[in-house]
């Protein structure tokens, strides 16, 4: 115990005595919205033009915004709306803004309840019919005589999971209101989601459209440079680190969030090692750490059956059996289920779990033709065995199953060895 305290004392002292790195830690967190958003002037002005009519009491056009992740959609919309709200107070316009993140709110019910809560109506967490929540929201909205702007961020997640019924209602609501008006700003990083929308909803929602294209390396560099000034003390960030960070983020679909998190993690690494400057090597280390954390997070959130499928693939790789098609994985998976008393899922269901693992980047699956026997998936594990062992070191079942020797694999291995000696 005494030793622990001494070690901790050293950690704190080293931190206090080490060079100062961060001037403002909040300024590099993902939800921080800076005063200036370089290279988004065009989008800021366009969105400003589209929403400005509300300042004179007209309903703003509905607006649909899309662009890949980390291209500044949320930051820009919040920035414009903050200024709009400010202006509306100056000119006494009855504007009311409500922002909802559809991924976090989750369901139609919760989204309506959150919008209602912003208007001051209390809606129980569950228990009412969604229609009833909608109706209370509509009544309250009309009573308040306001111009409401509703931002539905990450709108694709809502539509994919719960359809577009709430969007249909919200885009038609003005026909039923006497004293208030509502306009919608929908934001998505998935353009394909439009295909999930009823054509009527799509045409109302995208009365106006603004596209955010990915940033290029010099643009990300400018964004980082601006943010560096408020985040770090002078001279903390080296030129080399700034350049490599911009280049890495630009090569991955021009994602400013990615660039900022590389910089934040690199800053923390430097601070912990007691150095004074962020160098290229720290950005590379940060990249590895972020990737490692991402993979570990994915592995730890897998469902029990996906874990078993993954474990099966791990054992196949360990046994050095080169062909691993859906059938092979299923065979090992079923044996693992038997080992821990789980009822196995059907092969079809396991095949879709394999596709999910493929999308997440845990597997690399490709369809191969078996001639007249149809097609199957040839699967490879994209992660190292040590990553998987480390991620599941605390999982009581998995950590043992990863050492298991399935009978079906033993016979395959024996066949392979026999073929070699022949
Ligand atoms: N032009 C910019 N200037 C300064 N910071 C920016 C700019 N663009 C994006 N950022 C910052 O990058 C991060 C990601 O931006 P934002 O959250 O707006 O992305 P997004 O397009 O909404 O992504 P997603 O689709 O994943 O939600 C935020 O921390 C934001 O402050
Ligand atoms: Mg966003």
Care to describe what's here?
- The relative contact order is 0.09.
- This protein is α/β, with parallel strands linked by helices and 422 residues long.
- It folds into three domains: 41-212, Rossmann fold (3-Layer(aba) Sandwich), CATH 3.40.50; 215-298, Helicase, Ruva Protein, domain 3 (Orthogonal Bundle); 303-421, Orthogonal Bundle (Arc Repressor Mutant, subunit A), CATH 1.10.10.
- The model has no long low-confidence stretch (mean pLDDT 90).
- The chain is globular, with a radius of gyration of 27 Å.
- Helix 10 crosses helix 12 (256-273) and helix 11 (239-251) packs parallel to helix 13.
- The longest helix is centred in the C-terminal third of the chain and has 21 residues, at 280-300.
- The protein has 19 helices and seven strands.
- Strand 6 (363-369) and strand 7 (375-381) form a beta hairpin.
- The strands form two sheets. It has a five-stranded parallel β-sheet with strand order 2-3-4-1-5, with helices on both faces.
- Adenosine-5'-triphosphate binds next to helix 3 and helix 12.
């Amino acid at each position: 115990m005494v030793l622990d305290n001494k070690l901790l004392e050293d950690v704190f002292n080293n931190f206090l005595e080490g060079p100062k790195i961060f001037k403002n830690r909040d300024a590099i967190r993902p939800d921080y919205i800076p005063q200036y958003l370089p290279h988004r002037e065009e989008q800021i002005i366009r969105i400003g033009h589209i929403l400005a009519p509300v300042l004179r009491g007209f309903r703003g056009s509905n607006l649909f915004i899309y662009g890949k992740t980390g291209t500044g959609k949320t930051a820009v919309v919040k920035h414009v709306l903050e200024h709009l709200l400010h202006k509306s107070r100056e000119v006494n316009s009855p504007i009311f803004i409500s922002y909802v993140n559809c991924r976090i709110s989750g369901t139609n019910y919760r989204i309506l309840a959150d919008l209602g809560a912003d208007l001051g109506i209390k809606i129980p967490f569950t228990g009412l019919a969604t229609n009833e929540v909608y109706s209370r929201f509509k009544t309250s909205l009309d009573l308040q005589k306001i111009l409401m702007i509703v931002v539905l961020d990450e709108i694709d997640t809502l539509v994919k999971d719960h359809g577009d019924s709430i969007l249909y209602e919200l885009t038609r609501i003005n026909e039923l209101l006497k004293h208030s008006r509502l306009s919608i700003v929908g934001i998505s990083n998935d353009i394909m989601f439009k295909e999930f929308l009823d054509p009527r909803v799509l045409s109302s929602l995208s009365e106006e459209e603004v596209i955010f294209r990915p940033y290029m390396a010099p643009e990300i560099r400018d964004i980082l440079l601006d943010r560096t000034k408020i985040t770090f003390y002078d001279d903390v960030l080296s030129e080399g680190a700034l350049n490599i960070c911009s280049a890495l983020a630009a090569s991955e679909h021009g994602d400013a969030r990615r660039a900022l998190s590389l910089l934040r993690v690199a800053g923390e690494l430097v601070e912990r090692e007691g150095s004074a400057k962020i160098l290229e090597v720290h950005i590379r280390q940060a990249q590895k750490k972020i990737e490692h954390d991402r993979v570990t997070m994915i592995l730890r959130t897998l469902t029990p059956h996906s874990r078993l499928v993954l474990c099966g693939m791990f054992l196949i790789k360990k046994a050095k059996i080169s062909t691993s098609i859906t059938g092979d994985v299923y065979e090992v998976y079923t044996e693992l289920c038997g080992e821990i008393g789980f009822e196995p899922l059907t092969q079809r269901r396991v095949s879709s779990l394999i596709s999910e693992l493929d999308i997440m980047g845990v597997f690399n699956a490709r369809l191969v033709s078996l001639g007249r026997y149809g097609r199957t998936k040839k699967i490879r594990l994209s992660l190292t065995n040590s990553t998987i062992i480390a991620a599941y070191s605390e999982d009581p079942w998995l950590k043992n199953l990863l050492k298991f020797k399935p009978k079906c694999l033993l016979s395959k291995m024996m066949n392979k060895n026999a073929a070699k000696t022949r």
